[in-house]
Amino acid sequence: MTSMPRPRTIAVVVAYNRRDLLIEVLQALGDQTEAPAAIVVVDNASTDDSAAVAAAAGPRVELVRLERNTGGAGGFAAGLAHALEHHQPDWLWLMDDDTVPTPTALERLRATAESAGASVAGSRVIWTDGTDHPMNTPRRKPFVRRDERERAERAGGTAIRSTSFVSMLVSAAAVRRVGLPLADYFIWNDDFEYSTRLLRGERGIFAPESIVVHKTRVLGSTDADPGARFYYEVRNKLWMLRRSHSLHRLEKVLYGASSVRRWIRTAVRSEDRAVLGDAFRRGWRDGWRTDPRPTAVVLDGLPVSAAVKRADRDGGEGGR
């Protein structure tokens, strides 16, 4: 009897100025019990030698070097488009350059996703001390149907509505159907918008046996004081609630109210409320007055621009 070929998984790593961590991430990917067929490293115009690290990492590592920093959102859009264009994947495994997967992370992530019939799966994310990282907790799926909940439980996981780019497995078919992340988000809420767009009407699962270590400098949640970067949280959340089709109306009310509560907690805990207030005002203004540009426009002129145009053409209008 001929065994079925193993599904083809391509890892996509977005890198920016963390060469030592990138070395660790690439080593961990090479040590997987189920190795990715290829590893695409998108270097976001790093000023250290991150690109050189990726270029010297071996034949399975492919470097996509961008001449300008496009943020996590642009980096993942570029990496997904490149992987679809050149590697014929069945699955795409997305992570930042500070995400270190344990040896069985991919094997257990893919097995759980396939057992649950899910198109998106997220790993359990821990910090360096082994505690769960509050920044990367998947959102459980509200109002989940009984059959979906029970199938997820039988697979050893939990049905989810969203997950983060810190170890997100997504089927290539879903990417071709939905399109790419919205590069204009730059950072913050890009994975929330993209995963909820992928999962609108589809199944997602949290796979607790797939474990990755998120090596952030400190163990913080999403309401930790971000300083001036709070601009992106506010602008992008408004963009999402106003323009994205990733959430149903009731979900927008629920998640919008949750965001307001989190903003209040962030302000209360802030060490520099003047900086935070300025970021909030600018984000609020731009979130109402502007709309995100198409990803193909944002990434125009970069080496991946043709692949991005094809991927977003096939997937529609990026959820807008």
From TrEMBL:
UniProt cross-references to SUPFAM superfamilies, sorted A to Z: Nucleotide-diphospho-sugar transferases
Domain Glycosyltransferase 2-like: 12-171
Keywords: Glycosyltransferase, Transferase
InterPro entries (UniProt xref): Glyco_trans_2-like, Nucleotide-diphossugar_trans
Keyword presence, Plastid: no
Enzymatic class: transferase
Pathway: Cell wall biogenesis; cell wall polysaccharide biosynthesis
Keyword Disulfide bond: no
EC number: 2.4.-.-
Protein name as it appears in the record: Glycosyltransferase
Annotated organism of origin: Microcella daejeonensis
